[in-house]
């Protein structure tokens, strides 16, 4: 059994775990990783150098794999998605604040990203705590949002020019989630709307919804609620999609970047 050390990245989310290896982690090791994940929303593990086989084994310790229907799969390992940027790209996949798979009836539990090819600079990933964001709202707005739901859709992928799967059969019907969800394990209250996939409040028009949604997006991604992960060779990051949003920085035009990502299935979300 390894003894992980935990170093916080910021006041509200993120932690670096050192002292263990994911390639041969025991159940006890993974229990520590899971505990840190639920406490900090995102955990970063340097110098892991996961093979595709180890990446898949790691994902299975959290739950069944949710194969992403839009990304190109890794050759011979279809459960792993390629998150690839070519030197010609000036925008990147994930280059806006979002929550993975919020457009699914049972949104993703966690995502596991493994660094494969990194640019010489840039490409950092930002994370924002949705628990801190919820508690940062006024009491009145908290109470109002607890009684509301919002629609989420994968339709934004249709406008993507970043090499995502153009198969129209991949798109699904919009889904409805509470705006304030209860974390399935810890019970923490989390704000659950994001600019990529939330379209409008249930019972409201898109025009009526837009001003309040814009306020919530801006509020939730204030720097005080965030941490920033600077990638290094072999690094792995695991984040809980109920606890955080994330944002990929597009500041390395002219250089390639390749990450391998696995998403783990979640459960239908309940309101607070």
Notes on the protein architecture:
This protein is α+β, with helices and mostly antiparallel strands and 272 residues long. The protein has a single domain, classed as 4-Layer Sandwich (Double-stranded beta-helix), CATH 3.60.130. Helix content is 20%, strand content 29%. It has helices spanning 27-40, 52-62, 130-135, 139-146, 206-220; strands at residues 5-8, 15-18, 42-45, 73-74, 77-85, 110-117, 125-129, 149-152, 175-178, 180-182, 189-191, 198-201, 226-229, 236-240, 244-248, 257-264, 270-271. The strands form four sheets. It has an eight-stranded mixed beta sheet, with helices on one face. Strands 13-7-15 form a three-stranded antiparallel beta sheet. A three-stranded antiparallel beta sheet has the order 9-8-12.
Strand content: 25-35%
The tally of structural domains comes to 1
The largest sheet has its strands arranged as 1-2-3-14-6-16-5-4
CATH class: Alpha Beta
User: Number of helical segments?
Assistant: 5
Low-confidence stretches: 158-164
**Cα-atom radius of gyration:** 18 Å
Shape: globular
Q: Please, what is the average pLDDT?
A: 92
Under the CATH scheme, which architecture would be assigned? Answer: 4-Layer Sandwich
How many angstroms separate the termini?
A: 37 Å
Structural class: alpha+beta
Sheet having the most strands? 8 strands, mixed
* Residue share in helix: 10-25%
CATH superfamily: Clavaminate synthase-like
User: Number of DSSP strands?
Assistant: 17
SSE ordering:
EEHEHEEEEHHEEEEEHEEEEE
CATH topology: Double-stranded beta-helix
């Amino acid at each position: 059994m390894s003894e992980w050390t935990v170093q916080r990245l910021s006041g509200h989310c993120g932690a670096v775990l050192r002292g263990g290896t994911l390639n041969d982690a025991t159940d006890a090791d993974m229990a520590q990783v899971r505990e840190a994940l639920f406490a900090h929303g995102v955990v970063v593990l340097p110098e892991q150098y996961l093979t595709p086989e180890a990446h898949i084994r790691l994902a299975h310790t959290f739950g069944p794999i949710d194969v992403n229907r839009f990304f190109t799969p890794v050759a011979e390992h279809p459960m792993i998605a390629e998150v690839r940027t070519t030197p010609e790209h000036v925008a990147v996949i994930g280059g806006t604040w979002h929550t993975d798979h919020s457009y699914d009836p049972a949104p993703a539990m966690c995502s596991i990203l493994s660094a494969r090819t990194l640019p010489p600079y840039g490409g950092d990933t930002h994370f924002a705590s949705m628990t801190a964001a919820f508690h940062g709202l006024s009491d009145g707005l908290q109470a109002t949002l607890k009684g509301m739901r919002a629609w989420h859709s994968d339709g934004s992928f249709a406008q993507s020019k970043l090499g995502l799967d153009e198969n129209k059969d991949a798109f699904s019907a919009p889904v409805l989630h509470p705006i304030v969800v209860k974390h399935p394990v810890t019970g923490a209250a989390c704000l659950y709307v994001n600019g990529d996939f939330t379209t409008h409040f249930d019972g409201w028009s898109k025009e009526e919804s837009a001003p309040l949604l814009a306020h919530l997006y801006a509020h939730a991604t204030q720097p005080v609620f965030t941490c920033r992960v600077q990638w290094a060779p072999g690094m792995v990051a695991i984040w809980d999609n109920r606890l955080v949003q994330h944002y990929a920085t597009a500041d390395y035009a002219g250089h390639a970047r390749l990450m391998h990502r696995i998403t783990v299935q979640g459960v239908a979300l309940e309101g607070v």
